[in-house]
What we know:
Radius of gyration: 21 Å
Helix content: 40-55%
Number of strands: 7
Largest sheet: 7 strands, mixed
Oligomer: single chain
Low-confidence stretches: none
Shape: elongated
Mean pLDDT: 96
Order of helices and strands: HHHHHHEEEEEEEHHH
Strand content: 5-15%
Amino acid sequence: MATNPDPRDFLDLDSRLSDQEVLIRATARDWVDNEILPHIATWFEEGYLPKSLAKDMGDLGMLGMHLDGYGCAGSTAVEYGLAALELEAGDSGVRSFMSVQGSLAMFPIHAYGSDEHKEQWLPLMARGEVVGCFGLTEPDSGSDAAAMRTTARQEPSGDWVLNGTKMWITNGDIADVAVIWARADGGTVRGFIVPTDTPGFTANPIKRKLSLRASNTAELVLDGVRLPSDAVLPGVASMRGPLSCLTEARFGILWGVVGAARACYRASLEYAGSREAFGGAISRLQITQQRLVEMMVRVEKAGLLALHLGRLRDEGSLTPAQVSFGKLDNVREALWVAREARSLHGANGI
């Protein structure tokens, strides 16, 4: 005889996880419970995320955890996804930090950097001793990344000179190193490793954001930034470079937003059982039950999709289009759940 399904794991997805996956998830969840949730309201109000969290995340092996070698954990795609999910259940800014460090800053060095680049930067970044950022988006070219105006000119000496502006750069004002994408001579797109203390490099914090507040966001200005010839990533010279990084980040996002949606749903489930109106808890009302069920279905479906795509990636068969599929639908469903949760909480949701 079937038992009543758990409203917090209706599809019994936990039974699809290995012991190792459960352990990694529990480690990430405990860290969020102990180190993020007690402080996140303050960080939200003040509009930043402490840089010191990088070292903590490095100690736990979360930074670049899906990469192999150079001090990285070499975790599976599903293990990485579960960690991203738990971080975003704490706050989207925390998962965003993890994604930028591992998928947007460390990944291009790992995939396209020289051996010297990898040896110099990746161990430090994996330990959280060096924070990275990713400079692709510009004030006039967001999704249309190929329209970038930042230029890289190589001089007869071999040095590169970068000029341009990048916008909405997560970690930008706390980063020690930036991976900057620019259009070089001949129109090719090249990636450059830029220490943020290089003359001509300026990071201007973006304040008073209305969303993703517990996160450091900046404008990057490159005014005659001079780099040695070996600062360029040798392994790619086209838009394939930055676009592959975005695919890496999208994979973490499609997992992470499940955590955000789950947190909103579980908060609503608890609130509905404790909020009394018109003679009893609002959870007794059929209209509230319907709203909770709709939220639960979307959270469970998103979790199932993330797990399926994670298994495909671990098998080596996941395509970039499938990653985009997952990010599109899981973000869409997470937004719906968050909005419904805010509404269900009424004035308390504000």
